[in-house]
Amino acid sequence: MSDSTAIGHGAHAAPVDPHAGGHAEHPPYLRHHFENVEQQADAAGFAMWLFLLTEVMFFGGLFTAYLIYRNWYYPAFVAGSHQLNIFWGTLNTAVLITSSFTMAMGVWCAETHKKKGLVLCLILTFILGLGFLGIKTIEYSEKIEKHHVPGFHYSLQSFLDPDSDAEAKAAGDKPMALDMARHTEVYFSLYFAMTGMHALHMIIGIAILGFMIFRAQAGAYTLGHVTFVENFGLYWHFVDIIWIFLFPLLYLISRHPN
Amino acid sequence: MSSTIVSLPDQSTARIPKVNFITKENGLLSWLLTGDHKRIATLYMISITFFFFIGGALAGLIRLELLTPQADLMATDTYNKVFTMHGVIMIFFFLVPSVPATLGNFLIPIMIGAKDLALPKINLLSWYLYIAAGMLAIYTMATGGVDTGWTFTTPLSTHYVNTNVLTTGLAVFIAGFSSIFTGLNFIVTIHKMRCPGMTWFRMPLFCWAHYAASILMVLGTPVLAITIVLVALERTIGIGVFDPTKGGDPILFQHLFWFYSHPAVYIMILPGMGVISETISTFSRKRVFGYTAVAFSSVAIAVFGFFVWAHHMFIMGISNYSMLVFSLLTMLVAVPSAIKIFNWTFTMYKGSITFETPMLYTFGFMGLFTIGGLTGVFLGAAGTDIHLTETYFIVAHFHFVMVGGMLMAFLAGIHFWWPKMTGRMYPEKISQLAAVVTFIGFNLTFFPQFILGTLGMPRRYAAYPPEFQVLNVFSTAGATILGVGYLLPILYLTWSLKYGEIAGNNPWQATGLEWQIQSPPLTENFAATPIMDHEAYDYEWLEHQKAKEVASVG
C-alpha cells in the first residue's frame, strides 16, 4: 500500500518536489487518495456510522425475535427475568456507563494532545471492559449451575416449583403450567444470544483497546490524527447503548409499579 | 450510414501507455497487498470467474441428471447437494459480488473523479474475506457438501440433515462481511469523494444503481449474519428459537432469512441495471431518457425491496392479510423496474443505434429481464403463486432475471469496459456471435421450464414423470449451447489480452469520465483532479472536446 504516495501528491498540480513542502502542507497520515485531511476524517467518520448501522441491523434481528416471543410467552419471560441477578446487572450497567465516560475522556485527551491522559483513559476503559466481562461470567455461571442454559440439560424446576428456588420464591412466582414453563427456554435462548453477541462485541473492543494502548504510548494519536480514536469511541459507545437496551428488556420485564 | 461508432487509433503507431496501473509495480506481492481499486477489481474478476466455473459445472451436472426421468446419473442425495452448492456458489460467490466488486470497484472512483475508493484497505480486506469464504465453501463441497438448498430452511437445516450446514453457513457469513464492506465503501466514496462539479445529478446512472445496491448490502446483509448465527446455535446446542417443540417458530427464520435474501436479488440486479444505462446511452448516442426518473427508480427499487420479503412465504402459513399486503407491495416493485425498461426504450427512440457486442447483450438483458420481471408479477399474485411456487416456473422466473438479466448485463459491462481495463479491444465478430449464442442457448434452456412449471413439475427432484422428458431434453440441450456461449468470451477475451487491437482512450466515443483518461488508467486514475463542468451523457460536450483537441493539434 506504499503505492504512489509521491505521485498522489504530484497530482495536486504542484510541479515542485512533493517532499519539499514537508509535513506542514501534507501531514504524514494523509492518505494519497484524499484531497485534504478534512475529507479523510469526514470519510472515515461516515464509514464508521455506516458500520454502526449494519450493527443495528445485526442486533435488530435479535430484538425482533425478542419482541415476538415476549408477546407470545409473556409469563415465561417474566419468570425467566426473575432468575437474573438485578444487583450484578445494575452494577454492570454502571461499569459500562463509566467505561463510556472514560472513553469519551480519552477522545477528548487525544483531540487536545494529552498523551498521558489518553493512555490513562484507555487503560481505565480497558479495565472497566474486563470488569464487565468478569461480572458477566459470574452471572453466566449462576445460570449454568441452575441448568438454565438452553439445550440438552435445560431444567424447568425453578418454574414448575418456584418454592424450591430462592430467586423465584423471593419474586413471589406462582407455579406455572408446563406448557408455559417450557417457554422459559426461549427466554434464556434470547438472553444468551443477545448478551453473548454483546459480550463478543466487548471482547473485540477490548482487544482493539489493548492494541490502542500501545499505539497511544508511542504517541500515535496525539499528533492531530485522532480519527481512529474517535471512531473506536463511537464503537464503544454503540456497544454500551446496546446494553442500555438489553438491561431493561432482559432484567426489568415486570419490575414496574402497578 | 456508418454501422459502428468504434474509433480506434492508428494501429501502426498506437501503443499501450507504458505507465499504467498494471505495469506500475511488479510481482505477486504488489498485487496481493495492493490498495488500488483497479487491481482489487482485477483480483475479484479472476476469482469470480473461477467460482462461476464451479457453479456452472454444477449446473451442467443438474441438467445432465434431468436429461432422463429416472435418477440415474447420481444418487438423489448427491443431486440435492449438487443443486444446493450450485445455488450457494452462484448466489453468494458469483451474482452478489459480480458487477459491484469487479466493474463497480474499477469504475466508481473513476466515474466520480476520485483517485481511489474511500477505504482501500477495507476494499482489499473484502477480497480476502471473499476468498476465505470461497475456499471454505469449496472445502465443504469436497468434504461431503450440504443438501438443504441455498435457503438453509429450518427445521431441515437445524434438525434433520447431517451434512456440512455449519461450515457452509460460516462461508456465507464471511462472504456477507465481504459484501457489507464493498457496499459500505461505495456509499462513503459516492458521498465524500466526488470531484469538484460532480453533483449527485451529474453522476452516471451506473453510480446511482450501485449506490442503491450498496444500501441494500449494508442494511440487509447483517440480518442474514444474525440469522446464520441463530441457525448455528440452534443446530449445535438447540437453543430453540426456531424449534416449535420448544416454543420457537420456524417461520421466524423465514422472515429473517428473506428479509435479507429478497433484497439480495436487488443487490444482484441493480448494478446490472447500472451497466445497461451506460451501454444503452453510448450505443444510441443519446442522453439516457428521463435521467432523474432512472436514478430515483434505483433508489425506489432499493426501498420497496425491503418490504416484499414475505412473498417467498405465501405457502408457509402466513396470514391472509399479510399475503394481501405483501402481494400488493410486490407488484409495486414492478413500477420502478418498468420505469427503467421504458426509459431505456425511449433512449433508443430516434437514437443512432449501433450493434456492437455490449449493445447485443443489452438487448438480451432488456428482453429477458422483462419476461423475468413479468413472470414475477404472476408469482407475486398470491393465488397463482400457490399453484406455481416450488415448481420449475419459479426456477425459470429467477433464472430469467438473474442469468438472463444480471449475467447478460455483466457480459455487456465486461465487453464495454474491456478496452478501458486492458487497453485492448476484444475481437468484435466472434463476440457478437457469442452474444447471439448465449441468447439462443438461454431461451432454449429456460423457456421450457416455464411450461414445465405450469404443468406442475416440482423443483429440486432428481427424478420426474416421463411425460416431462421432451421439454427437459430441450432444456438440457439449451444448457449445452449456453455453456458454449459462456466459454467463448473466456477464450477470446484471454486471447485479446495479447493480440487485441490497441483501444486508445475512448474507442466508443462515450462521455463518462473513465473514457477521457488513458487505457489502462494510471494508478491514481487522473493526472490532475478533474473538474466536472457538464451533465452526464452530454454528447455535444464530447464533440466540443474533440473539436478543441483537433484545433490544438492543428
What's the quick description here?
The complex is a heterodimer of chains A (258) and B (554). By secondary structure, chain A is mostly helical. Chain A is built from eleven helices and no strands.
How would you describe what is shown here?
The complex is a heterodimer of chains A (258) and B (554). Chain A has 258 residues and is mostly helical. Chain A has two domains: 1-33, no CATH class; 36-251, Four Helix Bundle (Hemerythrin (Met), subunit A). Chain A has eleven helices and no strands. Chain A has helices spanning 5-10, 22-25, 37-72, 74-82, 86-111, 115-145, 157-160, 166-170, 178-181, 184-217, 227-251. In chain A, α4 crosses α10 (184-217), α5 (86-111) runs antiparallel to α6 (115-145) and α10 (184-217) runs antiparallel to α11. Chain B starts with 27 loop residues before the first helix and ends with a helix. Chain B is an all-alpha fold and 554 residues long. Chains A and B meet through α3 and α10 of A and α5, α7, α8 and α9 of B.
Q: State the domain count of chain A.
A: 2
- CATH arch. level architecture of chain B: Up-down Bundle
Percent of residues in helices of chain A comes to: over 70%
Strand content of chain B: under 5%
Average pLDDT of chain A: 87
| CATH fold-level label of chain B | Cytochrome C Oxidase, Chain A
Annotated CATH homologous superfamily of the largest domain in chain A: Cytochrome c oxidase, subunit III, four-helix bundle
CATH topology grouping of the largest domain in chain A = Four Helix Bundle (Hemerythrin (Met), subunit A)
Per DSSP E runs of 2 or more residues, the count of β-strands of chain A stands at: 0
pLDDT < 50 stretches of chain B: none
**What level of helicity do the residues of chain B show?**
55-70%
Question: What's the pLDDT, averaged over the residues of chain B?
Answer: 93
Shape of chain B: globular
Distance between the termini of chain B: 28 Å
Please report the total strand number of chain B as a whole number. 0
Broad CATH class of the largest domain in chain A:
Mainly Alpha
Order of helices and strands of chain A: HHHHHHHHHHH
